[in-house]
Amino acid sequence: MKIAILSQDSSLYSTRRLKEAGEQLGHEMRVVDYLRCYMNITAHKPTVVYQGKPLEDCDAIIPRIGASQTFYGTAVVRQFEVMGVFSANESQAISRSRDKLRCLQILSREGIGLPVTGFAHSTKDIDGLIEIVGGAPLVIKLLEGTQGIGVVLAETHQAAKSVIEAFRGLNANILVQEFIKEAGGMDLRCFVIGEKVVASMKRQGAPGEFRSNLHRGGTAEKIKLTPEERSTAIRAAKAMGLRVAGVDLLRSNHGPVVMEVNSSPGLEGIEKATETNVASKIIEFLEKNAAKGKNRDRIQY
Ligand code: ADP
Ligand code: MG
Q1: Ligand 1 test: best mutation among 102, 187, 219, 258, most atoms within 8 Å of CB?
Q2: By the 8 A CB rule, do 55 and 32 touch?
Q3: What is the pLDDT of residue 42?
């Protein structure tokens, strides 16, 4: 097959590994910087042009859209979809997953376990908002943060109020969440492809840090999931309409809760911690599913 990896940087670990894995399986792999793609939107022969030439007869794409480039990145993915090219993740599903609030609303609709979460517009409603999630300590998150930046633990009601007021004063959209203390700074990353968890690891935050992000100094280790955790991860990816997803769970007193679902999960941490060739599994998934006309998002939110 001819497979394009949409990535801004061909030297990134995930991009390199996908290219290598595809080549090993006999495919023609190409890294395409989606910010340098342009397109003609026409009924006759829609195309994507890259480096002056139309990208023709692509069989599948693997989008690796950076969080700060969601708008243009998903427009390029959508153009491939219009052309009938199969995408490892569809544009709609990527957009959906980028907004933490929308993501949680979709998961709640499916009855998937979540930390109790509140959202409000006006700072006049802060006290009620704090009450909804059971009071302090609580977690405050920027709606579009990544890598743990913009996630704050407020230990007291007063601290929570000040932080919420400060964020809202800057016009930032935030959500407020029950603090799952019993997780002890640990979360589970479940790598889902199709309807399977192909690898899973636990991430533990640095001492004194409640955020387990590897970018914040967390460490990763392979872990075996319970059947409930496994099925929660698969249901979450499916509810979001994602074929390839990194589902993050916390172990709470009331069972596994989903914190977020990532549409471009990194390969480095998970491949190293679990010694699994996740990149090949993505390519194999494309081999099985990339028949023309298979793009179809059915989620209505
Ligand atoms: P980001 O998208 O920036 O990674 P997350 O929502 O994943 O933001 O939060 C970052 C980290 O903070 C998580 O991996 C987890 O360790 C910790 N965390 C987030 N929300 C909670 C919560 N409600 N209770 C306990 N820990 C949390
Ligand atoms: Mg996270």
Answers
A1: 187
A2: yes
A3: 83
Residue 63 alpha carbon to ligand 1 centre in Å: 24
How far apart are alpha carbons 289 and 157 in whole angstroms?
A: 50
Reading the block at residue 29, the tokens are 């792999």
Residue nearest to atom 2 of ligand 1 (CA): 146
Length of the chain: 301
Encode burial over 128-150: b for 16+ CB neighbours within 10 A, e otherwise: ebbebbeebbbbbbbbebbebeb
Q: What is the DSSP letter of 132?
A: H
Model-level pTM greater than 0.90?
yes
Q: Is 123 exposed, middle or buried (0-12, 13-18, 19+ CB in 10 A)?
A: middle
Mean pLDDT, consecutive 10-residue stretches, the chain (301 aa), reads: 97 98 98 95 89 91 95 96 94 93 94 95 89 96 83 96 92 93 96 97 95 91 98 98 98 96 96 98 96 64 61
CA–CA separation, 213 vs 216, rounded Å? 5
Q: What is the pLDDT of residue 146?
A: 78
Q: Strand, helix or coil at 189?
A: strand
Residue 301's pLDDT is: 61
Q: Which domains are present in the chain?
A: 2-89 (3.40.50.20), 97-113+182-286 (3.30.470.20), 117-179 (3.30.1490.20)
